[in-house]
Amino acid sequence: MKKFEETAALALILLIAALFYGVLLVNTSIMLKVAAAVLVLGIGGVALGKLLKIEGEYGLLLLKTTNGLDWIDRTANKWPKVWNAFADFGLVIGYGACAKLFFKNISWKNFIYSMAVLALVVLIILPFILPVALSVISIPLDFGSVTKVVKDSGGQVFGLNVYTIIFTGILLLGGLAAATIAGLLLNTILIIASMLSFVKGNAGALQHTVPGASLIIPGQNIPLFEGIIALAILLVVHEMMHGVLARVAKIKLKNAGMVLFGIIPIGAFVDPDEEELGKSTVVAQNRVLVSGSTANFVTCFIVFTALLLFMQIGTGFVGDGLKIQEVTNASTTDLKPGMIITQINDVKIVSFDDYDSAVATIMAANKSSVNVVTDQGTFKANVSADGTIGVATTYYYKAGFGWMRFIYNILALVFVLNFLVGSVNLLPLPMFDGYRILEVTANNKKVTTWIAIGLALAFVINFLPWLWR
């Protein structure tokens, strides 16, 4: 009987994988793809759970184990002061200068060092987040609405755009959590304004609204195998550190494990005794709660160094020109994914700097269309309001060095996803650790609830543009 169940489970897993892969290959809207993928994984997860008697519901499977808890215990007991300082560091990175105001336990020495690191994040790491994200994640590139708001602000101080100054100030004062909330709220305002304009009769008002939130699905908007590896690293470091800080606070761990949706890993967990956690001090609870995001930030910083080193080593193996990764506006061009752009009008394209120069030239000349030279011929492309030609591009490796792209994808995804997840996890929403941190620190259920409701509404609005893309 056991052998039959194992064979049946293997067959079911292969069937779910085949159906999921088939959904990814279908040429339809992303919303329909996501809905179909969720249906396949949900039904498959329910069937797999019943067959193997795995705890879970609605397609979510909880794979529980006690393996590794001894290691977490030894690690926590070996350097308790280090781990407490580590968590306090995360509070400053997450909540900026305000951390010293709300979390009195943070020493001045740790606070100053952590603020220095946060400043370096603003100056060095943040400028890389978007370019690297665009190279490995299929996300909307038509940031026309946001760009227009920034350009139309008209104000500059010491040569810097007012919005840049304000955003930097928010980062330093409120950390990555406040900056994430500010970005979410700004995009919410832009989406609502566009929707109101559309209702009043402006048919093109929704054209440049950009989703401010998106699901991350391996095989759909991130590479399949590299995505699974990156998500596994993200989940393991996040949950492992929750466990370490729980044991530092002498809170019992019941078990640990991974969460699957169907056959796709979407989470990991370390299950502390909630009663003991609730009875522990506010300081201990905050350290346990923030430790997951702290681990994500530190992983991001470490991998950022490795990524820069890898990119420097791999420079000689990169081909000339930019490869089209995705066509974002098929109605304006005959360009196709896989083509390599070598020239736009009179500008030779070898790198992203050349592409930026071409865009600047196009905008300065106020052209409505351009000639794009590729390895498959010359094509005409219409120019959008922000000077782009409706394609997402990335660099590519020369023949025989394609394996370097696989390594780059893993490093880039680990870098970007750890940064994004670490930041978003600190938002005061019920499913995130940030909600519990606010709840414990503010000790005001009504305030916490209303903040969560307002932010949840903003989150929903930021998903809306997917409906008309």
Annotate the secondary structure layout:
Layout: H1 2-25, H2 30-52, E1 56-57, E2 60-65, H3 69-78, H4 80-95, H5 98-102, H6 108-136, H7 144-152, E3 156-157, E4 160-161, H8 162-199, H9 224-248, E5 253-261, E6 264-272, H10 274-279, H11 282-314, E7 322-327, E8 340-344, E9 347-348, H12 352-365, E10 369-374, E11 377-382, E12 391-394, H13 403-424, H14 433-442, H15 445-463
Antiparallel strand pairs: 1-2, 2-5, 3-4, 5-6, 7-8, 7-12, 8-9, 8-10, 10-11
Helix pairs in contact: 1-2, 3-9, 4-6, 4-8, 4-11, 6-8, 6-13, 8-15, 9-11, 9-13, 11-13, 11-14, 14-15
Outline of the structure:
With 469 residues, the protein is of the alpha+beta class. It has 15 helices and twelve strands.
Walk me through this protein's architecture.
The chain is 60% helix and 13% strand. It has helices at residues 2-25, 30-52, 69-78, 80-95, 98-102, 108-136, 144-152, 162-199, 224-248, 274-279, 282-314, 352-365, 403-424, 433-442, 445-463, and strands at residues 56-57, 60-65, 156-157, 160-161, 253-261, 264-272, 322-327, 340-344, 347-348, 369-374, 377-382, 391-394. Helix 3 (69-78) crosses helix 9 (224-248) and helix 6 crosses helix 13 (403-424). The chain is globular and about 65 Å long. Residues 142-154 have low confidence and may be disordered.
Question: What would the keywords be for this entry?
Answer:
about 475 residues; alpha+beta; Pdz3 Domain; 6-stranded antiparallel β-sheet; 4-stranded antiparallel β-sheet; globular
